[in-house]
Amino acid sequence: MGNLHFNVGDTIKADGSDYIVEGLIVFINEADNLKWTEYKIRQLSSRKVKWLSVDNDYEEYAIYTQAGSKKGFSESEILSKGFKEADFGKANVISFAGNVDVENGDWVRYREFEDISEENIISIEEWEDETEYSTGYYLDENEITKVASANNNASYGNKNNFNNKESNGVFKRFLAFILILMLFPVVGFLVPKIFINKDKIADYLS
């Protein structure tokens, strides 16, 4: 069983290129109740978005590029290119994070086609409100590695890191405000005492 797991903000290397993880979706397959994760990744050099599919149970890994239109993705066109259907089914979203447009409970019907080499993939995902078309290819597990964890990615503007710093600043200002409020009664009590004592000393000296 594979053991690839990443968090939003991690920098990873896939097929020789560096990417930052912008989001992730965890699916569960209705047929066998097994899970897999799709990571939304942005290439650091080109800034292009791709998707990395990680199925640790079946030890299957693939990287996809989403197509801008459905042209060339009809079943007849796919089969004419020498691809054959390799997988199909229905899955539900059970978890997500980062910049992804899903909610828990969303479902998708999927079909995947492989070419004769069984390396290149055409994917069709039918969501409740749209259909997405992608092309991709399989990777070996050793072609995917973590370069840096999310905590080391301040230079990439990690949203979570920024929010944590901002929250800490607000919390510190709140504590200072509470401390000032607590000091008001003490100051109000001590100031009259000081002036009264000064008056008594002045009377004694005179």
Which structural category fits the helices and strands? alpha+beta
Rg from alpha-carbon coordinates = 29 Å
What percent of residues are in strands? 35-45%
The poorly predicted ranges are 154-168
Question: What's the overall geometry?
Answer: elongated
Strand order of the largest sheet: 2-3-4-5-9-8-7-6
The helix content is 25-40%
Mean pLDDT: 85
The largest sheet is: 8 strands, antiparallel, barrel
Report the span from N to C terminus. Answer: 94 Å
| DSSP helical segment count | 2
**Number of β-strand runs:** 10
Q: Helix-strand pattern, N to C?
A: EEEEEHEEEEEH
Plain-language structure description:
By secondary structure, the protein is an alpha+beta fold. Helix content is 26%, strand content 41%. The chain has an eight-stranded antiparallel barrel with strand order 2-3-4-5-9-8-7-6. The longest helix has 47 residues. It starts with 10 loop residues before the first strand and ends with a helix.
Distinctive features:
206 residues; alpha+beta; eight-stranded antiparallel beta barrel; 41% strand
What's the SSE blueprint?
Elements: E1 11-14, E2 17-29, E3 35-43, E4 49-55, E5 60-66, H1 75-80, E6 84-98, E7 107-114, E8 120-127, E9 131-139, E10 144-148, H2 159-205
Antiparallel strand pairs: 1-2, 1-10, 2-3, 2-6, 3-4, 4-5, 5-9, 6-7, 7-8, 8-9
